[in-house]
Amino acid sequence: MEMNAPGATVVSTMGPVGPSEMQITCPSCLAPITTRVEHKPTTKTHLLALALCICLCWCCVCVPYCKDSCQNADHYCPNCNAYLGSYQN
């Protein structure tokens, strides 16, 4: 089990989730699985890109959208597609 980063928020339907795949038993279909992680941009991602733009770092504006550490990690069951939780930076 991974430790949460300082300042990170964990939203989950089954317990703490981390920023990467996890091996768990799905609470929906009860199958032993490795979670499917989808990284999605947040308001913080957009604000960071805006700050880079304002600082005239136009060539770096896409970096927050390419780095998984700047986005939420949403966990899903690969069998039943149930939402399992989200790791928010």
Automatic annotation (TrEMBL):
Q: Which GO terms describe its molecular function?
A: metal ion binding
Does the keyword Phosphoprotein belong to this entry?
Answer: no
Ranges for domain LITAF come to 5-89
Its placement in the membrane is given as: Peripheral membrane protein
Task: Report what the protein is called.
Answer: LITAF domain-containing protein
Give the primary localization class: membrane
What organism is listed for this UniProt entry?
Loxostege sticticalis
For this UniProt record, the keywords arranged alphabetically read as follows: Membrane, Metal-binding, Zinc
- Which family is this protein grouped under? Belongs to the CDIP1/LITAF family.
UniProt GO cellular component terms:
late endosome membrane; lysosomal membrane
Q: Which domain of life is it from?
A: Eukaryota
**Signal peptide as annotated in the record:** none
State where the protein is found: Endosome membrane; Late endosome membrane; Lysosome membrane
